[in-house]
Amino acid sequence: MKKKHVIVGMSGGVDSSVAAYLLKQQGYDVTGLFMKNWEDDDTDEYCSSRQDFLDAVSVADILDIPIEAVNFSAEYKDRVFSNFLQEYQAGRTPNPDVLCNAEIKFKAFLDHACKLGADYIATGHYAQVREFNGAFQLLKGEDGTKDQSYFLYRLNQQQLSNALFPIGHLYKRDIRKIASNLKLPNSAKKDSTGICFIGERPFREFLNRYLPHQPGEIQTPEGKTIGRHLGLMYYTIGQRQGLGIGGTRGGSDDPWFVSGKKMADNVLVVVQGHDHPNLLQPSLKATDLSWIGGERPHCNWVYAAKTRYRQKDAPCTIANFDHDQCQVDFAQDQWAVTPGQSVVIYESKVCLGGGIIVA
Known about the structure:
Blueprint: E1 5-9, H1 14-25, E2 29-36, H2 49-63, E3 67-71, H3 73-89, H4 96-115, E4 120-122, E5 127-132, E6 135-140, H5 157-161, E7 163-164, H6 172-181, H7 203-208, E8 216-219, E9 225-229, E10 256-262, E11 267-272, E12 280-291, E13 303-306, E14 314-322, E15 325-335, E16 342-347, E17 350-357
Parallel strand pairs: 1-2, 1-4, 2-3, 4-7, 8-11
Antiparallel strand pairs: 5-6, 6-17, 8-9, 10-11, 12-15, 12-17, 13-14, 13-16, 14-15, 16-17
């Protein structure tokens, strides 16, 4: 009987390397695929794609599997990076990893794999997929500190039906141990924390290459000017570092946090104190909704939501569906809800989907 063919997205990191190993152990016909999706200023100073490719090739050699490289940089610029810039220019804070997964890893990569005759694609994401009552569900990864279902909430039934997540049931310490036992060259390699496929660059310097920055005033909610900002695109709701302002004379020494942006006036609004009322919201509005099962959740049922990665699940209800928008109401006020980020809805360990926060 012919083995099922799986093409694994191998990034050069330890997670995807162990994913490839586990699939081979399970009897699949495994091929590695290294995706290069960024070419602008691709130098050793910031982008490690050359070393990542060498690491992926070294692992493939040890595992005795074929590997190829494919360039999706044009697709990345068109489908992900252009949206990234538009959102920052509009004063929002996008999450490119969400769009990158939906448009590149599980669309461009999946299409390429299907042309090569693959039965499945696989990645090193900490997530799980199961078939339940004739539909595919996305589940949280077993390791709660590494769960990446938040970044995958825009996947649809067709994408999930062709996806495998071999390490979703494991903890990071297990991955490191397996890699070490196999003597993989990347067993101790640190996890990437940069922008999806672009790498870890000085953010302001990077963004300034593509968008003009316009300095302006930093004000309190009452309209008092207390400093200058470098450009609204460089700041996000809840940001504390890099504001360049201290305590007020004769006032509190509590730290300052970004609480809003007045785009028309080019004003950055800040407040003092982590728990300032302007940083807390009882509800939010979301648009560009995407539901994994194809049907929207029930109104007024109690679910859980994350408004940013690594946030603890927050009990909530969903209401006021209007075409491609909804309102999410929380049991407790949420801190620094940020337009442009995603709100992702869960029912226990099942990721139902979500949308982009607009207010």
